[in-house]
Amino acid sequence: EVQLVESGGDLVQPGGSLRLSCAASGFTFKNYEMNWVRQAPGKGLEWVSYISGGGKITYYAESVKGRFTISRDTANNSLYLQMNSLRAEDTAVYYCVRDVDCSGGSCYPTGWFDPWGQGTLVTVSS
Amino acid sequence: SSELTQDPAVSVALGQTVRITCQGDSLRTYYANWYQQKPGQAPKVVIFAKNNRPTGIPDRFSGSSTGNTASLTITGAQAEDEADYYCNSRDSSGNHRVFGGGTKLTVL
Fold first, then answer.
1. Are B30 and B87 in contact (CB under 8 A)?
2. Does B99 sit within 8 Å of A44, measured CB to CB?
């Protein structure tokens, strides 16, 4: 079974740092691009960051660029999100998601997110 | 702000058909995906790459696209379809992923 399990969410003060982790299992981790997506309380989904299968290419939403760093450890099948200079508006459930672009023998130029982990809650407050 | 625009809320009578739309210039180039999220749960994909259903998703869910607008249609909506629905695709650069603001579907 393909599974993603996030951890590391916590209550942190504004300006503080936090590192989220995502343990992947049930698939060949190095073959898949990965992302972080977040959801503030009562709000919609917001894409945060992307990393290529080899880890060399990364992208960030403008709202977190320069403060967050995505990385991966293929040996340990793990995805990470280092969050620095945290702000109240970073308060959200953070989801680890796999980027998929092939299904049933067909591949498509635009990928989709599947599966989703259960999420980990980050609260930024004094 | 999102580069993909959705109506905040839509309602449908039980057993009737409802269409949820998503607009954005990038949809002229990239496929849209659709996710369903029920309260307290993580989202799950119901339509990927414009009009494909994952295994286990009922065939009352379908997707389509014309120009800059993608649509999710539920034919014969059921009570269990009441949820938030989000579209997702790429931005104009093709590098960043984007979500629509979400549509809350109420089944009456």
1. no
2. yes
For residue B52, what are the CA distances in angstroms to A29, A82, B19, B58, B83? 24, 34, 16, 11, 20
Write down the residue that tokens 């280092």 correspond to. A82
Burial class (CB within 10 angstroms; exposed 0-12, middle 13-18, buried 19+) of A96: buried
What is the token pair recorded at A28?
């060949």
User: How many CA atoms, within 13 angstroms, populate the side-chain half-sphere of residue A97?
Assistant: 28
The CA-based angle B54-B61-A116, given to 5 degrees, is 40
In this prediction, residues B44-58 reach a mean pLDDT of 95
Residue A104 has pLDDT above 90, yes or no: no
Interface of B with A in 86-105 (CB under 8 A): 86, 88-90, 95-102
pLDDT for A65-83, tens place per residue? 999 999 999 999 999 999 9
Say if the Cβ atoms of A113 and B30 lie within 8 Å: no
Q: Which of A112, A114, A121 would best serve as a mutation to test chain B binding (most B beta carbons within 10 A)?
A: A112
